[in-house]
Write a structure and sequence with these properties.
alpha+beta; 2 domains; Nuclear Transport Factor 2, Chain: A
Length: 297
């Protein structure tokens, strides 16, 4: 499960992952294909891929997330962070971008979930199938997935949209892209070391501010990039946003700190359900900003 900050961002159509340091040019990354939504067709010309932690799978498993779109991701956003995702969703809401996000298991090559980006809220989709023959979402890799990912995505049949007026959607495209990776692991803290870490304390500052619905404190606990997203959320409805923040903080309060995973100037703070055998997991991303750890997107 994503941290409450990530869930709240999704709720306002704006989804926490670790910040990366590698940047690549869009010149060598390309796509050729179409995204069809109802009667509308959009030409997909650009690809951008990152290696991310697969939060839903738990542990240290990773996934390759690929954006196929009709607008390229700016060079300064081509990092293993969520900044590119929020940028894409914002451009889609403005009608400047149309695209699809696909998530691929790098070990099996299975494409099983993602998002469709349009001028409305992102449409989340997923598929579970017991065999390749039953899959509607199909990915044919062109070589191993590593520093590069390439191949063809297609669908056996169109999928329904969350917005009935848009009609069903379908994608068929070939693409090639460098894979942007997260910064190297620099430490994993558990127990008292995690509880006393500045990364955990940064998350606590955010959660405490959310519980009090203290907008200034919430803002001060966030990175500059996250504050931009916060401003959009508040503009859409201050009370609703604060209620969602408070609700997310309350949910996290029932969980227990599990570990803090540090990757250079970024880190991930993970909470789990303390009941043996029970599910439930929250993950928050933080990053160094002017020497202080702040909640990141």
């Amino acid at each position: 499960m994503l941290g409450s900050w990530g869930l709240i961002c999704i709720g306002f159509a704006t989804v926490g992952l670790l910040l990366g340091v590698s940047i690549t040019s869009a010149a060598a990354d390309n796509a050729s294909g179409t995204l069809q939504i109802g009667e509308k067709r959009f030409a997909l010309k650009h690809a951008f891929a990152v290696m991310e932690q697969d939060v839903s799978a738990g542990g240290d498993k990773e996934k390759v997330t690929v954006l196929l779109s009709d607008l390229p991701v700016p060079d300064d956003l081509r990092q293993a962070s969520d900044d590119w995702r929020y940028w894409a969703q914002k451009q889609a809401r403005a009608g400047a971008l149309h695209g699809v996000i696909i998530s691929i298991n790098p070990a099996t090559g299975v494409w099983d979930h993602g998002q469709v980006l349009t001028s409305r809220d992102p449409v989340f989709y997923s598929e579970t199938a017991s065999s390749p023959e039953l899959r509607d979402l199909r990915f044919e890799p062109a070589g191993p997935i590593g520093d590069q990912v390439a191949g063809k995505v297609s669908m056996k049949a169109p999928l329904s949209s969350a917005h009935d007026e848009d009609g069903r959607w379908r994608v068929e495209a070939e693409f090639r892209s460098a894979v942007i990776r997260r910064a190297a692991l620099s430490g994993v803290l558990t127990g008292s070391a995690a509880e006393n870490s500045p990364q955990y304390k940064a998350v606590l500052a955010f959660l405490n501010a959310c519980q009090k619905k203290d907008l200034d404190a919430i803002r001060n606990s966030m990175s500059p990039q996250s504050r931009e997203t916060l401003a959009e959320m508040i503009a859409s409805g201050k009370e609703a946003a604060l209620d969602m923040f408070a609700g997310g903080a309350a949910e996290t309060a029932s969980l227990k700190l599990s570990k803090v995973t540090i990757r250079g100037d970024s880190a991930e703070v993970e909470f789990v359900n303390p009941k043996p055998g029970a599910g439930g997991r929250e993950t928050y991303s933080v990053a160094l900003s002017n020497g202080e750890w702040k909640l990141a997107q």
